[in-house]
Design a protein that fits this description.
Blueprint lengths: L1 E10 L2 E11 L4 E5 L6 H9 L5 E7 L2 E2 L5 H6 L2 E4 L11 H7 L4 H5 L1 H11 L1 H5 L10 H13 L5 E5 L7 H16 L3 E6 L2 H7 L2 E6 L2 E7 H5 L2 H7 L3
């Protein structure tokens, strides 16, 4: 579904990603894990078209999208939920959700999508007329995910969905990721919480200093000595 080969990304004269190569198959949960500043978010921004200074190939559903603008990538069904939620704080919950369905395909199914999202996140139904900026951190993350789902994604990219959440909410958020995947949506997860990410991943890639240093099944990497020492304090 997604095939990234030899991806190099630059911020001005600084190279942030070095020959990054990975793939995501339909139906998988694939995670990219690593410490803060390793380049995880950069990889998603490059895929979604937010970052333009890059080299390599990024194929989605067989088409090279590396030169496409973000809105064209969204139309293809590749959706990013950015780090820090990036909701519209002065708009209502409902207005935020409706903005997720701006493409022609998503707009036709807006009511159907709203119903599904309110079933997944009942709190959003309760607070649909509330100003989004007054929601708790966990509720704002649910809103950001809900807004992304309104676009009817084929592949959903989640950037640090557990960031800033209490431990119980972290576990709940990752359960939600599994629920979304079980509904038929492929997931590319970027996560600093390595243990939790590996637990729910079909496969995972470890990113260090802008380069992939390890890859494998989530369960296998959980038992990897380097991963346990570097990221889980074991």
């Amino acid at each position: 579904m997604l095939d990234v080969k030899g991806l190099n990304v630059f911020y001005g004269g600084v190279q942030a990603l070095r020959n990054v190569t990975f793939s995501v198959q339909k139906g998988e949960v694939v995670s990219i894990v690593g410490s803060n500043g390793a380049g995880k978010s950069t990889s998603q921004k490059a895929i979604s078209g937010v970052l333009r200074q890059k080299q390599g190939t990024i194929e989605f559903l067989g088409k090279d999208i590396i030169s496409l603008p973000s809105h064209e990538i969204v139309k293809m069904g590749l959706i990013q939920i950015p780090e820090g939620r990036k909701i519209f704080p002065t708009m209502s919950v409902l207005e935020n959700l409706e903005l997720g369905s701006y493409t022609a395909r998503a707009k036709k199914r807006r009511e159907e999508s709203l119903k599904k999202i309110c079933e997944l996140f009942p709190i959003l139904e309760e607070r649909k007329h509330q100003v989004a900026g007054t929601l708790s951190g966990g509720e704002q993350q649910m809103l950001a995910i809900g807004r992304g789902l309104m676009s009817i994604p084929e592949l959903l990219m989640l950037d640090e969905p557990s960031l800033g959440l209490a431990p119980l909410l972290v576990k709940e958020m990752l359960k939600i990721v599994k629920t979304i995947n079980s509904a038929g949506i492929t997931i590319l997860l970027v996560e600093q919480n390595v243990a939790h990410a590996l637990e729910i991943s079909s496969r995972s890639y470890v990113l260090e200093n802008g380069a992939i240093v390890l890859e494998g099944k989530g369960g296998d990497l959980l038992r990897n000595e380097h991963v346990r020492k570097a990221y889980m304090g074991m």
